[in-house]
Amino acid sequence: MNQVIHKFDQQIGPAPYRLICIISLPGKGLAADNPNAYQQATNSAFAQAKNLGVSICSCDYCGNSLLNNFVVQNADGGRFVLGCDCASKIGDTKLATEVEVAERDRRRELAEKRREAKWAKQAAERQAEQQAERDRNGGLTDWELAEKRKKDARDAAAAINEAKYGPLLDVLRAGSDWCQDVARSISEDGWDGISERAQGICFDVYGKSGGRRGSKANKAKQDELEAILKATK
């Protein structure tokens, strides 16, 4: 009986076939963005191909040009290069699975590298933008400058409120946690920054700093606070 030879056997030797690796050439985008990196990647691909004893850039079966060269070994140990489509047509199920997995991994790795390159580019752009802002703002980014201005405004307002309500703030800060919180609110936002209920309690607390409720000393303190508030308007 005549032995039937598969069309692939005539060109690339007998099955079974085994995927050795993928040798990928860099794209034109890298050549435009970074010629040195492009040349290094190209040299590395050709050096790898030479070590494996194959020629890259075209499919050994169909002759089409290739960027991604699937290096396959036949049953006799001979090695050759196929494109992804031709590698899946050989009829070797194991090889077809290897090629499918390798191609999926290659695409995933390429997508990850593109994301990393995009993030790196964005980070470099942000750093350059922030440096331009620091040069413009005396060492501060626009956000840092805006925050400094806010803090300066708060500090200025607090200094004014400390001068206006100093005696009341001293009494409140010597009291409970609630009183200390109210003192902080008055320092930041003034008398109108607290509720009417809190204002009433402040009168009570300030009065008690002079004497018990209902005493002349207590009333004198409350009158004193009233005078302080009137003087601030």
Overview of the structural elements:
- Helix content is 65%, strand content 7%.
- It has 233 residues and is mostly helical.
- The protein has two domains: 7-122, no CATH class; 143-231, no CATH class.
- A three-stranded antiparallel beta sheet has the order 1-2-3, with helices on both faces.
- Helix 6 crosses helix 7 and helix 6 (142-173) packs antiparallel against helix 9 (216-231).
- The longest helix is centred in the middle third of the chain and has 44 residues, at 93-136.
Summarize the structure.
The chain is mainly alpha-helical and 233 residues long.
Shape: rod-shaped
Structural class: mainly alpha
Instruction: Please tell me the overall pLDDT.
Output: 89
Largest sheet: 3 strands, antiparallel
Query: Unreliable runs, pLDDT <50, ≥5 residues?
Result: 1-7
State the total count of DSSP E strands. Answer: 3
| First and last CA, distance | 116 Å
Report Rg: 40 Å
Give the strand line-up of the largest sheet.
1-2-3
Relative strand content: 5-15%
Q: Tally the helices.
A: 9
Q: Tell me the number of structural domains.
A: 2
Helix content: 55-70%
Along the chain, the helix and strand elements come as HEHHEEHHHHHH
What tags apply to this protein structure?
three-stranded antiparallel beta sheet, 2 domains, 3 strands, about 230 residues, rod-shaped, disordered N terminus, mainly alpha
